[in-house]
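Lab notebook, bench 4. The sequencing result for the construct came back, and we need a structural model before the next group meeting so we can plan mutations. Quick request posted to the team channel:

Model the 3D structure of this chain.
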Amino acid sequence: MIGIIDVGGGQRDIYGAGVLDYCMKFGIRFDYCIGVSAGSANLGSYLAGQSQRNFRFYTDYSFRKEYMGLGQFLSTRNYINLDYIYSTLANHDGEDPLDFPAMKNSGRIFRIVATDARTGKPHYFSMDDIQQDNYDVFKASSCVPGFNKPYPIGDGIYFDGGFSDPIPVEKAFADGCDKVVVILTRPVDQVRDPKKDQFMARRLASQYPEAAKALANRAQTYNSQVELCKKYAAEGRLLIVAPDDIGKMKTLTRDLEALKHLYHKGQDDATAIIGFLGIKLSSHTPAMMQYPY
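Done. Here's the predicted structure in token form:
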């Protein structure tokens, strides 16, 4: 079973959108998809076969005042308007609907990582937790502490999956993957600094102490998971696809030219997937990739 992980990273994950659009263009199929934060939404469009849909979210909709901003925070206490992104725009009658039937019937395993706000542990949602016009699992996975209140689903409340299991490579292998492609949105050798996380964790601690602990340890978790990915890569079981440089791009940066540059970088870097999976172009169907097994 071949898996792919998209780790998210807010606006930086337009890089992942570029990687996945390349995969759609050439028919590269993954049996197992696991996404964190924005990476879960990227993979939703990939599974639905909706090329360039994510590109529009990053380069068009994200610039709207309804999408995110100080006005949203002052009125709702949520800087990022998750309901606008994953309901108003994405529902069947929205401006850019997710093709839910295509995603649901894709025949692939889909996991979405969120952080349980009460326990600080990762929670893995599945395709069974998604229904037409109910994309709450994407909202939960993308719910950034400090910018958003925890997102409720059923009896649970959730934060962004990126601080409990930022690179869920162990989950992918435990679920049966033989090979895994990991999309990072930072250079692979860029060590994550814990200072920002620890500041936010202190603000979170009084209300959600276990989630605050996970957030305070996110940098250590992320850095150790990158090292684990490098180990698996040396064994030939994993491919890291990561930008060599992200310029001044941060989680919420809205710079159209920088976004487009990172998207095209993702498309260029995705070519490494072909060699890693041993894919060959078919002479009869040149637009599709064929696996050697």
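Residues 146 and 200 are 7 Å apart (CA to CA).
Will bring this to the meeting.
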